[in-house]
Specification:
Number of helices: 14
CATH topology of the largest domain: Dehydroquinate synthase-like, alpha domain
Order of helices and strands: EHEHHEHEHEEEEHHHHHHHHH
Strand content: 5-15%
CATH architecture of the largest domain: Up-down Bundle
Helix content: 40-55%
Bound molecules: NADP nicotinamide-adenine-dinucleotide phosphate, zinc ion
Strand order of the largest sheet: 1-8-5-4-2-3
Radius of gyration: 20 Å
Number of domains: 2
Oligomer: single chain
Number of strands: 8
CATH superfamily of the largest domain: Dehydroquinate synthase-like - alpha domain
Amino acid sequence: MNFDFYLPTEIIFGVGTVDRVGEIGKRFGYRVLIVTGKKSSKENGALNRVIESLKRNGAEEIFIFDQIEPNPTDKSVNLASEIAVKEKVDYIIGLGGGSSLDSAKAVSIVSSNEGYAWDYVNYPEGPRLIPFLNRPVICIPTTAGTGSEVNRYSVISNNIRKEKLVISHSLNYPKVAIIDPSLTISMKKRLTAMTGIDALMHALESLTNKLSNAFAEDLAIRAIQIIKKWLPIALEEPENIKARSYMSYAAMLAGIAIDRKRVALIHGMEHPVSAHYPSVAHGEGLAALSIAITDFNHKGNTQKYALFAELMGYEPKSSMAVKALEDFLEKVGLRISLKDLGVEREKLEKLTEDVYMLSRGLFAINPVEPTLEDIHRLYERAYEGY
Ligand code: NAP
Ligand code: ZN
């Protein structure tokens, strides 16, 4: 057995913990920038609770950047970074779904080093610039999916280049993750399902890819068990705080698992989809691609896919992983195709090319190393939905 583990993020987990942000934040200073989305954190009261807590604890200046959109862009990261620099903020709070957290983390890097957000993303050849400074970040997730609050990734889109790439650096870990499951109660059914499936895909892909890390695999296994049991309950009973707590916990576990073991082809093929179609949510794209890719992948790691099938309540055979996933997606209302999501058939060629241009670093760790023909065929299957 072998593994390595590193997580410089303090985790504070529990209902009501959002109200502690001011007490925690004052360790880092008194001038703070909150990076959040356009609506939900205002509507569900999370933003107000953060502001109140900061004020109670003596924050001097609170700046708010509330323009983060799903599939966040380098443009908004650059704009928020300008505020951080101009106002000399001491630290940054990311409040919202993965898009707000990823952006807050990226703002920390961009506002503390030269250049712009796109200089720090990882092309297969590496990023153009390496950061050497950052500002402290506190992440407060309001979805239960990405695990961004506990990992070193920021997934950023460039709408001009139509590329979605990842900043991945040890300076990109949040200093503190405040995970308050009650903030996820306001998620509607489809958002709950999409984000839960994102966490499940993190667990499945980190469990089955070719990297070796026994500790991360245990986290992934536990995440799968929890999501199988509690996601359907969270969907049926949105105010069930036990179900919401387990989902926040599973997303966190899976977020740490991918930090150590990375993802694989399902994520590699999803990123070009939401880069070309920013209206497609990450979790929906993953759902549409996951069956075809699991059917392709399971032969490359029969033992782990058999384990996945078993954890999902099926016969422990690797081919049953496909059936297990199909049934689960059906159950949570996400048995969907790329066609359903508005992807155009004539784009599949370009998407295939982009997987090679932008995500080929994942090919070697995918359970089965794909060729470009494989990828095109998988996009075709996912397009038709079988
Ligand atoms: P999101 O894109 O952050 O948010 C999706 C939508 O949900 C937004 O419209 C948002 O509203 C709304 N929302 C958020 N919290 C809510 C709540 N509690 N109640 C009601 N509505 C709420 O969704 P996400 O799935 O969490 O994040 C997806 C992004 O994270 C993608 O860009 C993906 O690529 C990335 N990602 C990152 C990692 C990582 O490891 N860092 C892993 C997986 C995915 P507002 O816009 O009004 O806030
Ligand atoms: Zn993901």
